[in-house]
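Structure ticket #2291
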Amino acid sequence: MNRNYRIGFAVSIALLALLALAAWTLFETYPRTRYLPPSREARANEYLALDRWLGDEGIGVRTEAQGDLNMISRAKEGHIFIQASLFRWTLDAVEYLVNWVEEGGTLFLVLDTYGELDSYEVLYLLEKFGITVEVVFSPYYEDPDFPDYDRRFFFDVSADVEALSLKDRSGAVTLVQAKRGRGKIIVSGEPHFLKFPFIGNAPNARLAWALFGHDGWGLGPPGAAAIDRGVMEKNWLFIRGAARARGLLGDLFRQGNLPVLLVSLLVLIVIGFWAAIPIFGLIRGETEKPGKPLRERFVAEALFLKKYGGLDLYLGFYMKEIRRRLSRIGGPGGEADFQKRITEILAKPEEEYLLAIFLHGGRINYRDFTRLQKTMINILEKL
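Resolution: structure written out below.
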């Protein structure tokens, strides 16, 4: 190797070593927390973490956007979660749910809007289990020792009902589990403690485990309704969703992808205008055909008139224009005076002869027609 190359290589290694030493002594490495926003799937499903956790525990999850008596009567799940605003309430549905709980089912009823307080069926269902509900606007403050309850609804339970009541920091009952027969009902407001932004907190995770996983809470003993299928199904039927949006646009904004919708609309608008607006100008690939000269057009008209004996008619228009101009400049009015004035304008005897034949109604051939037409043009030019 060349001596100069060896020196350059050694200098480069030394510089790199010095840079590494300076970086090691002057700079400090430290962990950095980077915020990752929730995925689109998590934003669309607030209970995604709960669903995955139940799936990992071997508990099946079926989700419906709305429900009614027909749906729950055909459900094979032994546990039903009902978001009250998404259920079609009837007295028959209330009676069925009461009997279903008595036979061993678990019902988790969520009051998510104030409208349920005006529903006689919902209040009647709660009354069947000895529960009453009231609205209290409690101030919100974060407390790491309590789950994230809905602070709009508070409950009261009759003394003769076997129930477990969970309270918030202020002592108000925010969640009730009441036993009836072989089953139980769980009633709460909006279950924020089950949603993906909060379920990871320790108080929320403990409450979720108590409701869905612990044998003493979530999975009770089989009841009479499960005798036909051996053991009560441990799976959950969730009737839940976001606040219902009325109309087509509401469903699109709630369930669809807004950027994809806007891009699709833009593409459709561009294609529509492209198809509707014509392309102005000449069509590509075609050349404009030049029109026929004036002389050829005149000859074609003359041949047509000759064929049908109309040459006199064609020359009559010239003669009419000559008469009009003579009358305008004060020429003689009689026929004899008219021919005299024309003779004065003409310079050639043969032109006078042809013109006299035409004026007296004589027939002319095509050759005489062209000569006479030129004569009349000369007269018009002189007038």
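Closing remark: The mean pLDDT is 78.
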